[in-house]
Amino acid sequence: MISRLSLENLAVRRGGRLLFEGLNLTLDSGQAAALTGRNGAGKTSLLRTIAGLVQTEAGTVGFGALDPSEARAEGLHLIGHLDGLKPARTAREELTFWSAWTGGTPESTQTAIKTLELSTLLDLEVRRLSAGQRRRLALARLIAAPRPLWLLDEPLSPLDAGWRERFGQIMAGHLAGGGLIVAAVHDPLPVPAKALEIGA
Amino acid sequence: MSRAGALLSREVALAWGKGGGPLVSLGFYAGTATLLPLATGPEPARLAAIATGMAWVALALAALLSLERLFERDYEDGALDLIVLSPLPLEIVCALKCLGQWIATGAPLALAAPVAAIALGAKPELAPLIFACALVGGLAFAFTGGIGAALSLGARRGGLLTAVIVLPLFVPPVIFGGAALDAFAGGLPWHAGLTLLCAYAAAAVALGPLAMAAACRNALS
Questions:
Q1: Could you tell me if B89 lies within 8 Å of chain A, comparing CB atoms?
Q2: How far apart, in Å, are the Cα atoms of A69 and each of A2, A130, A131?
Q3: Angle formed by the axes of helices A131-144 and A161-176, to 10°?
Q4: DSSP 8-state code for residue B125
Q5: Does B83 touch chain A if contact means CB atoms closer than 8 Å?
Q6: What kind and span of H or E run contains A194?
Q7: What angle, 0 to 180 degrees and rounded to 10, lies between the N-to-C axes of helices B127-151 and B191-220?
Q8: Alpha-carbon dihedral angle through residues B145, B147, B148, B150, given to the nearest 10 degrees
Q9: ipTM of the predicted structure?
Q10: Which domains does chain A have, with CATH numbers?
Q11: Quick one: which of A62, B44, B155, B218 is 20 to 30 A from A24 by CA?
Q12: In this structure, are residues A183 and A189 in contact, taking their beta carbons and an 8 Å threshold?
């Protein structure tokens, strides 16, 4: 169970270009961080680095006393702008698979369907969903399989005002339950968060 | 449902599902098998002599056709990122993907192989051996082909690159399978060819996933 995320003196290089260096951040249970920065500053790369998908140039990503690869395998959710949903499959098939893959139970999947109001969309092919509906389907993973660390890349952008508020409540609930959130955002995050500007 | 089971059924559904899946592979197989006699001439004696060989090569090409999207579809839409973030080792994931591919397209092609060979003039008593060779060979094609599919991740015209990488790896199973069928048709001992084919398939199943996982990690980082 991840209860602490610490980035120490982190540097990441992508395509020969140094995106950022000397980045430090410590998050404990119940805390959120809002990553800001201009387009291309490296917000997505930082999230992928925390997830272990991108190699660090220097510095470390630590998860308290946990082994990083174990912590990553079972302790975090990554919601990127590529949502991993197959256009030709139905929302139900996709949600069922991702729930099983991330270790969710049928009960928690039902909770996710209820929380994100997906029940009327389940029989539709993913290609028929709007951008906001697709995002809600992707976000349902967060609830279908409870994991402590959420890495969110622009989670709010396709959502309408009502759903932004609802997702704010969902994030607040996650933090109240001891979770951690790192979110790349352009708009203010609807929950109290440490600010971290990249490439400043 | 267990993780591995969920992934396998997803892979079978994706390979089977919309966009043709086994039907496209079978259609391509039927097309190639029909094209070959048009080029060699229709005399039954000549056709019968090369029928099994043609059916076998057409099978390898049809297996190749279905491999292109094996990793590409998950790479493009971000699903590969999420699949990597799992307690299941990436090597097992890659093996399951290839297994799903084999179930969805390799097995239907193996059923079609004897039909194609007999239609081209092979002796009907060859049918069981052709089926066995196609089934085992299909496993070798799927697991060696997966290496090419993973290595060409992120490349433009990845399908073409996959074919270029994979065709040399298809040489041994084509030789072994072809030798077994040839020997059987000629009344000679044929077990050696089939055994070598099984050995190659076993090696592909054991080693292929290691290479695929390394290629996937490289493409993602």
A1: no
A2: 12, 35, 32
A3: 10
A4: G
A5: yes
A6: strand A194-197
A7: 20
A8: 120
A9: 0.87
A10: 4-89+147-197 (3.40.50.300)
A11: B218
A12: yes
For residue A50, give the nearest of A90, A15, A16, A79 by alpha carbon: A79
Name the pLDDT band for B23 (thresholds 50, 70, 90).
Answer: confident
CB atoms < 10 A from the CB of B147, how many? 25
Give pTM, 2 decimals: 0.89
Structure tokens, A148 = 């402590």
Return d(Cα A23, Cα A46) in angstroms, integer: 10
Distance between A90 CA and the closest CA of chain B, angstroms: 11
- For tokens 């220097």, the residue is A58
How many residues comprise chain B? 221
**Contact residues, A window 51-70, toward B, CB-based 8 Å cutoff:** 51-55, 70
Instruction: Give pLDDT tens digits for B137-165.
Output: 999 999 999 999 999 887 777 778 888 88
Amino acid of residue A194 = K
